[in-house]
Amino acid sequence: MTAPSSATGGLAGHLDGFVRAVREAGIPVGISQAVDAAEILTVVDLLEREQLRHGLAAVLLQRAAQRPAYDVLFDLWWPLADRPAGDPSDGDAEPGDAGPGDDDAGSTLDLPDGHGDERDLAQRMREELARLLVDGDDEALRRFARQAVDQLGRAPTSPSGQSYFGYRVMRALSPDTLVAQLLAGLLGDGGRGGLAEQVARQTVRERLAAFRAAVDAEVRRRAAAERGRERVARSAVRPLADQVDFLRAQQADLAELRRTVAPLARRLAVRLSARRRMGRVGRLDFRRTVRASLGTGGVPVVTHHRPRKVHKPELVVLCDVSGSVAGFSHFTLMLTQALREHFSGVRAFAFVDATDEVTRFFRPGADVSDAIGRIGREADVVAFDGHSDYGNALEVFADRWPSAVGPKTSLLVLGDGRTNYRQPGLPVLADLVKRARSAHWLNPEPRRLWGSGDSAADRYGEVIDMVECRNATQLADFVTTL
C-alpha cells in the first residue's frame, strides 16, 4: 500500500527523524540505506505495523546485535495506536503518533478505569493475561500491555504530569507466578515430562519476555509523549556491544562482546606477526644470482632470493586482573583466549601486585569464565595486600621470565596504569620495550584521566605506545592502524 499524497510529506519527515535516531544509536546508516528505507514505505502495507518494522530493519541493519536497539527506537517512532501510521483520515497527525484517546485502544477487558477495589482489578487482569499468554496472540498481548500500564502503572500525579512505571505493572500482575497455570493450559491432558514439556516451558519463557517488552515499550511511549522521543531514546537505548565500555560491561554484554573480539584478536596477531616479515621476498641468494648472471654477460638481470620463512606470532600479553579493572580484565582474558585459539606462540601473564604465567589456563576450547575462576584460585598474582602494584609486578615478571621478551616478541600490556601511589617500575618497562620487537599498552580509561590521581599512564606513555581502548570499536581502530 502506497502512502497517500496528503501524508507523504509528514511521513518522509518522520522517517528522516527515525533514521537519524538509528544512526545516533551507533548503527551505521548510509545515504543509500536511507533511500532504501524511503522506498520501503512505498511497497509495504502501512496498515501492518510489524510488516513495516521488519521491512525497515531489513535495509537499515547489518548485524543481529543491532536489533534490540532498533526495536526500542521503532517503538518510540512508530508506537502502537488505534489509528495506523499514515491514516489518511487525519492528514495533520504525525505518522505513528497515538491520538489523545488512544489509551484504551484495543481493550480486552471492561475495566473500571482505576475505580473500585485495586486488588480485584489486578486479579481480573491476571486472569486475562493468563488467557492471552496461552492463546499466544502477540497483537492482543501488546494491546493488553498498553491497557495494563494505563490501569496499573500509573504513579501518583506529580507537578510535571502523570508518570507510569513498568515495575508497578509487573508487581501487580506477577506474571512469573503464572508458569504452572500456563504449562497446564499449553500441555492440556498430555501430562508433564519429555520433549513436550520442554517446548512448553520455552514457549512460556518467550511469551512472558514478549509481555515484559510490550510493557516497557508502552512506558517509553508515554514518557516520549510527555518529554520527547529524542530525550527518551538517549536513556532507553542501550549501547551496542562494540560501544560498551569494558569497565562497565555487564554479563549480558559478554557473549556478544566475545563474538566481536574473536575476529579482532585474529587480525591483531596477524598484524603483529607481519611486522617481523622482511618484505615480500626472503634474503638475496648471492650464489644463485651470480650463477644466473653468467648467461647475461655477468649482469644480474634476474635476482634470486631464499624462501622467506613465515614466522608464527610470538606474543607476550601482560594482563592487569585487579578488582579496579574487573570488567576490563574479563575482556583482556577474553582477548587472550581468542589469541590462543588461533596461535600457539602466545604467552599470557596476569598480575595484581605480583605476576604469574596463566597460559596453561587458556588452552584452545577452554571456557573464559572457567579460566578466570582458575586464575583467582590457582594463579600466584597476589604478593602483599592484593592492590595493584605495577612496579613490583613488572620486576617479578622480568626476574622470573627474563627470556620471555626478545627480538622476535611483541609485547602487549593491558591495564589502567593506576599504581596506588607506588613505584611504577618505569626502568623495567623501558628495558622490556627496548628488547621487544614492538610494544603496545591498551588502557581502558579515557585519555583525559591519564595522570590523574594515582594514574601513571602519562609516564608509562613516555616509554611505550599507550592507546586508549575503552570498547571494541576502539580496539578495532587500534588493529586497523597498527
UniProtKB/TrEMBL annotation:
Bias (Acidic residues)? 89-105
Cross-referenced SUPFAM superfamilies, in alphabetical order?
A: vWA-like
Residue ranges of the region described as Disordered: 85-118
Domain of life per record = Bacteria
- Kindly give the InterPro entries that the UniProt entry links to this protein: UCP010256, Uncharacterised_CoxE, vWFA_dom_sf
Q: Which Pfam families match?
A: VWA_CoxE
UniProt cross-references to PANTHER family, sorted A to Z? BLL5662 PROTEIN-RELATED, BLR6139 PROTEIN
Name this polypeptide is given: VWA domain containing CoxE-like protein
Organism of origin? Geodermatophilus tzadiensis
The root-end lineage is:
Bacteria, Bacillati, Actinomycetota, Actinomycetes, Geodermatophilales
